[in-house]
Amino acid sequence: MFAFLRKNQILLSSCLCLILSLYILTAAARGQLKNDPIGPILLWIMRPLQLAAQATTNWIQDIQNNYSTLAGYRSENEKLRNRIQELEVEKNQLLEAEATNRRLQQILEFRSQLPAGSVTASIIADSGSTWFKSCLLDKGSADGVRKGLAVVTPLGVVGQVVAVTARTAKVLLVTDPNSGVDVLVQRTRARGIVSGSLDNGPILKYVKRSEDIQEGDRLVTSGLDGVFPKGVVVGAVTKVRKQTLGLFQHIEVMPAVNLGRTEEVLIVKPDASQGKN
Amino acid sequence: MKLSLSFFAVGVLLLLLQTTFLHLLPLGPVVPDLILVLCVYWGLYHPTVGAVLGSFLLGYSVDVVSSPILGLNAFAMSLVFLAVYLSSRSIWLHHPVVSSIIVLLASLVKGGALMLVWTFFLSVDGFWIGAMRYILMEALVAALMAPIVFALLRRAQAYVEKVHVPA
Known about the structure:
The structure holds 2 protein chains of 2 kinds. Chain A is 40% helix and 24% strand. Chain A has helices at 2-7, 9-30, 38-113, 270-276, and strands at 119-126, 134-137, 150-153, 156-164, 169-173, 181-185, 191-195, 203-205, 218-221, 233-241, 250-255, 264-268. The longest helix of chain A has 76 residues, at 38-113. The model of chain A is unreliable at 272-277 (pLDDT under 50). By secondary structure, chain B is an all-alpha fold. Chain B is 78% helix and 0% strand. Chain B has helices spanning 2-21, 34-45, 49-65, 72-88, 96-121, 127-164. The two termini of chain B are 18 Å apart. Classes of the chains: A alpha+beta, B mainly alpha. Chains A and B meet through helix 2 and helix 3 of A and helix 1, helix 3 and helix 4 of B.
């Protein structure tokens, strides 16, 4: 008997535990288990340990929460930075669009003053040379652009088309030493030729010593060269020097158009310019 | 004696972990049942009367701490221990996958027992549908954790036995 019990002690003790637990269950379910003898002791033993464990857990949780909060702030900060960058780009695009709109509006108004047939074009490249002052437009022979056409903006003369491909046109700027625009001094109607130079910008050539030219005088196209429409501003006189010898005065000119900052231009067709004349 | 005390300490530690910390793990509503894993371990590697009592007491402790009715977990843990003890004689055990499978089955046994007892003593409408899902999830989580817990327990047991019985 004792050997049997010893041999099956685990099995028997397990069965006893099962029966005991079922008894407890039944008693608890029926409400008969008023005084639980083991529960309070277990809780009494467990309480300080649970308090310590809970405190540790809370501490870990606090650290985790703080980390999550910080990580959240970092993530939010990153998102806001990205958003600011996006808004900056958007703002720049809007400002750019507004500026372009304004320029195009001016060109449109200016174009309406010219005879029909003028072509609007954008500058797509610069000469990239110290010696030559030219630029490349995005319109070419396919758009009706031909060699010799005048290129202007609402502010004044830009230059003249000197070479054309199907989709591009090269413009020789008024600041190039090889260019020449027949002009009138607006105040005195004295004639001359504005040409570029490598020294101090464009100069007004062939103005007699006797002519009354003053600094600030505005120069406009005469229309006599058959290229530029009459009355378009070319620039203003910045310096007048009457030399001791020689027939003509030395007059320096400031171009009306800041060619480095021009983006859109009008190409004036010959018929148009002639019509204007 | 020393080993029994160590197991008692481990049991208390796991109970503490289970009642204070493990619910914070990102496992949704499922809390890993480490006490079940310990009972399975005892059933497999340390089948003694002390382990039987330990399983019962651990289950009872869970009841005292969290169960709506006393004896529910005590019954389930005792049943799990017995089932594992009886089946361990015919199973090759020295592989983590096998231990996982045994814990999975033990967890299902426990879940089944809980459901039966629950239904018998506390009739709740619509309990079965939700319970089935939780039982499966809990069994899977316990099975996943089993190899790690087993390895730790085995190391601890080896360490204690080595200290206890010097060469």
